[in-house]
Amino acid sequence: CGNSSDDAAGGGGGDKTIKVGFAQTGSESGWRSANTESMKKAFTKDKGFDLVFNAADNDPAAQIAAVRSFISQGVDAIVIAPIVSDGWDDVLNEAKTAKIPVVLEDRTTSSADDLYASWVGDDFKKEGETAGKWAAEQYGGKATNMVVLEGTTGSAPANDRAAGFGDAVKGTQIKTIASQTGDFTRDGGKKVMEGFLQKYGVKGINLVFAHNDDMALGAIEAIEAAGGKPGTDINIVSIDGVHDGMQALVDGKINYIVECNPLLGDQAADLVKKVLAGTTVEKKNFATDGAFTQEQAKAVIATRAY
Ligand code: AHR
């Protein structure tokens, strides 16, 4: 890491400060806030890092520009939470040419494995499968009209959760009557759900599959505004397990949540140090995720870390 500066703060086990550029997606959800906080806590001066943080407001072009700027600043390593999966080859090649290792965090890319050093994140496909298995057990045997609130189009979690859920409900009586992106935001989920409710009415929709809690929370607002009872008239399954989502689960407004752990900072920091030290690391590092019914949420909500 030729661009390291002397470590004025000390600590971190090494004698150099590691300058890391982190290209975050944006600040679309409660999950993202928890993830950003975890990253900022892990990449501190006293742990041996100088963090250059960029949040791209969910604009893939702006995120690529941020990575290019990290390269021209000569950072020691780059961490990216890629907004979308495609379109990374050029800039990852540029980082490779500049000999700056890249660690992917949270989301994956469709680029070849040799264009990044390692990845740490959650198993999105399995999350979708877990949500789908629950839906299949609850509703698979009866005619069920489901609407889907998709995450950001082209993102790994939207693609993989849809695929996992689809596999799990195949052959059941759950029918997807509408599916649209709400961009992982509460506002987006609310607006899309309003449109679905206008078209099908509260009585025409039995189940919502939201690719994250924030969109489920937006859907709850839309259902209530339309005179329906979320969690009763229309059931909701979502993914993340952030505090507001868990509270809605405890309150009976969401029916099931599959966890997606946002606390990836320490693992990402450890990977950066190991990669720079030349230590062999796994290419893929999965965080562990649970899942919660309303009863289970009541038992754990007070002790959740995010
Ligand atoms: O990539 C993880 C997803 O991104 C989370 O499920 C969602 O809440 C976030 O915005």
From TrEMBL:
PROSITE patterns in UniProt: PROKAR_LIPOPROTEIN
Ranges where the Periplasmic binding protein domain occurs: 21-279
Compartments (UniProt record): Cell envelope
A Pfam family per the record: Peripla_BP_4
Alphabetical UniProt keywords: Signal
Domain of life: Bacteria
Family classification: Belongs to the bacterial solute-binding protein 2 family.
UniProt xrefs under PANTHER family: D-ALLOSE-BINDING PERIPLASMIC PROTEIN-RELATED, GALACTOFURANOSE-BINDING PROTEIN YTFQ
Protein name, entry field: ABC transporter substrate-binding protein
Organism: Angustibacter luteus
Lineage: Bacteria, Bacillati, Actinomycetota, Actinomycetes, Kineosporiales
